[in-house]
Amino acid sequence: MSSLKSDMQDYKELLSQYLKTKDEAVLYQAEQFSKQSIQQNISPDEVINVHYQALQELIPNIDESVQDSFQFLIETMISYGLAYQEHQVLREKQIELKSEIGVAANMQNTLLKTSVPSANAMDIGVKSVPAKEMNGDYHHFIKDEQGNIGVAVADVIGKGIPAAFCMSMIKFAMESFTENQIYPQWILESLNRVVGRNVDKGMFVTMFYGLYDVYTHQFYYASAGHEPCYVLREETGEFEEIDAKGLLLGVESTVQYEQLQTAINPNDLIVLLTDGVTECRVDGRFIEQEEVLNVIKAHAHLESQEIVDHVFKYFERLQDFQLRDDFTLVVMKRNDG
Amino acid sequence: MNLHIDGHRNENLGVLKLSGEIDAYTAPQLKEELLALVEEKREVEVDLLKVNYMDSTGLGVFISALKLSKEKEHHLKLINLQENVYRLFNITGLNDVINIENTVKGELS
């Protein structure tokens, strides 16, 4: 209250100065005064009241009807005052929500953390970038006792916070599988049941799952409605699409997934990705995907993590580059001779 | 770009002719109209001849409609899909569970 009192004194002086001089500099100070009032949560009707008090002191004999009109004006401003208070409350709430989403995003990162397995036979690089704060993409690595490597990339249809929760559920389901159950076909069939039973009707998941046998160098894979992945063959220097037919997770209660396999030779590169590829344009190409593959090819001699970093650097350098969807890229290179 | 939805109904059949883009902005409107139609009519046809763009939210709408049609024992059919729109159904394996008839190339006005 004391600040309001001193503000009032300031206001009175300002007003008096202005009435005498009509100086624009004083007008500017009035503007500053309004900014200050907003910071101190002073409502419009209070400001008019301050004006009225100051006026009464500066001009002792104001016409009575003018005095009454001020009472009238103060009343008409009351709703503005209330709206202003509401606005303040909403602003505070918004700040609160924003910080909660931040907490959720952090929690998601912690919950979904997966470590890239170290293996002599395989050099693995991975990068995942969300388009918004919460990532609807997911990747996961499993290493069994024999050292074989399971890898999953997934994309939730339906974005934001629900998608993130869905991902956490899938991760915990995957971690509960025992080590002799990490064949792709089995994993997708099990996850399909988990997703179908536990996920909201409007949400669906695509997943590509691969298992790399470090002894036979066979790569087993299956796909639940996920876009194709690739193997860059050292021998030919060309990408080979690897794809298996299979339905999205969570649409039908029981689905059988096809499991295929391919031999991986030294220095072959397995590329798994999720991209906004579940988008299409009749008049356009999948420019990003082609470009991604070209950049990978150009850097194929590097270590896997450097390769994926180069891909992202390449896109960051492009003008107007904006992710239209979460994007995840996993590169695995057989690096023994 | 918007999505224009043109609906026709007769005794047992409901038809939606779509033109434009199906994305996060237009999908809610499509979902509302499509689900209402599937609820109401035993046979529902969706004509996608003039749909030149669809993203994953569009897939979500058709999956919801498919589920509802199974519950109601109604039939849902998609016709005249542009090749690249069909590609989405193909990648996701939905072409095996949704009745899709006739894919086309071009013919976009």
Automatic annotation (TrEMBL), chain A:
Location of the PPM-type phosphatase domain: 123-334
State the Gene3D superfamilies in the record: KaiA/RbsU domain, PPM-type phosphatase domain
Ranges in a coiled coil:
none
Indicate whether Glycosyltransferase appears among the record's keywords: no
PROSITE patterns, per the entry: PPM_2 (PS51746)
Q: Which UniProt keywords are listed?
A: Hydrolase
**PANTHER family membership:** PHOSPHOSERINE PHOSPHATASE RSBU (PTHR43156:SF15), STAGE II SPORULATION PROTEIN E-RELATED (PTHR43156)
**Protein name as catalogued:** Phosphoserine phosphatase RsbU
UniProtKB/TrEMBL annotation, chain B:
User: Cross-referenced SUPFAM superfamilies, in alphabetical order?
Assistant: SpoIIaa-like
- Segments forming domain STAS: 3-109
A family per Pfam? STAS
Q: Which residues cross the membrane?
A: none
Keyword flag Phosphoprotein? yes
UniProt-listed InterPro entries:
Anti-sigma_ant (IPR003658), STAS_dom (IPR002645), STAS_dom_sf (IPR036513)
Q: PROSITE patterns, alphabetically?
A: STAS
Q: Which UniProt keywords apply?
A: Phosphoprotein
Q: Which family does it belong to?
A: Belongs to the anti-sigma-factor antagonist family.
Functionally, this protein is described as follows: Positive regulator of sigma-B activity. Non-phosphorylated RsbV binds to RsbW, preventing its association with sigma-B. When phosphorylated, releases RsbW, which is then free to complex with and inactivate sigma-B.
Q: What is this protein called?
A: Anti-sigma factor antagonist
Phylogenetic lineage = Bacteria, Bacillati, Bacillota, Bacilli, Bacillales
